[in-house]
Amino acid sequence: MGKNTVITLIITFTTLFIACSTPKPVVEKPEVIQKEKVEEIVETPPKPSVYDDILSQNLTLKVEGQYLPLTLITFTNTKSDLVGKKRIYELYGDWEKAINLSTSKHPLLVWKNIPLLDNDFKMMTIIADGKLVNNINQISFFIYDSKTKENLLADNSPYKERITKKITQLLETNDPKNKAFEKKFWKDFYFVDIYEGE
């Protein structure tokens, strides 16, 4: 075997050796990203108001010689049948007049020209009632524009929701220890001082 042949064989074997020993390129599989398990988020619902169940009734009421189509809103399960009148009295003072109805145990109280809503100068007339029905206390309100006699509790009134929220807020912030209204009410209408000595 000639010298050239030996060199050729060495180069051939070396080339084959290098070719065989060269690692094949590794094709990486795309990484599968596991999605994190999202636990169910249970939101705690806001605490419902005890006055969320508000009844609404359309009636015609004779006011100062006029028959007005008004809406009566009624809050049930109140602490007493006088709490609605009490809260209006505590904020706006003495009522202007009282109305006696055969359907009500106590007289309805009327406040006129009351700026009931915050940041709103509309003057409202508030007629407040309260009664015990099937051992459940209820309080009711008629509320209308003192000037135009517009029914502010009508379903299409932009004031209805705001007024309802305002009254609800007044009821929820009632201080039962404040007996000023009860003392005046019972003494004025029934000539009884039920808190005598307190």
Can you tell me about this structure?
- The protein has helices at 3-21, 83-92, 160-172, 180-190; strands at residues 54-63, 66-76, 97-99, 108-114, 124-133, 136-145.
- It is an alpha+beta fold and 198 residues long.
- The protein has a six-stranded antiparallel beta sheet, with helices on one face.
- Mean pLDDT is 81; it is low at 32-46.
List the helices and strands and how they pair.
Layout: H1 3-21, E1 54-63, E2 66-76, H2 83-92, E3 97-99, E4 108-114, E5 124-133, E6 136-145, H3 160-172, H4 180-190
Antiparallel strand pairs: 1-2, 2-6, 3-4, 4-5, 5-6
Mean pLDDT level: 81
What kind of oligomer do you see?
Answer: single chain
The radius of gyration is 40 Å
Structural class: alpha+beta
Give unreliable regions as ranges.
Answer: 32-46
Shape: globular
Strand content: 25-35%
User: Biggest β-sheet, characterized?
Assistant: 6 strands, antiparallel
**Could you state the order of secondary-structure elements as H and E?**
HEEHEEEEHH
Query: Which sequence of strands runs across the widest sheet?
Result: 1-2-6-5-4-3
Span between N and C termini?
Answer: 135 Å
The number of E-state strands comes to 6
How many helices? The count is 4
Helical coverage, percent range: 25-40%
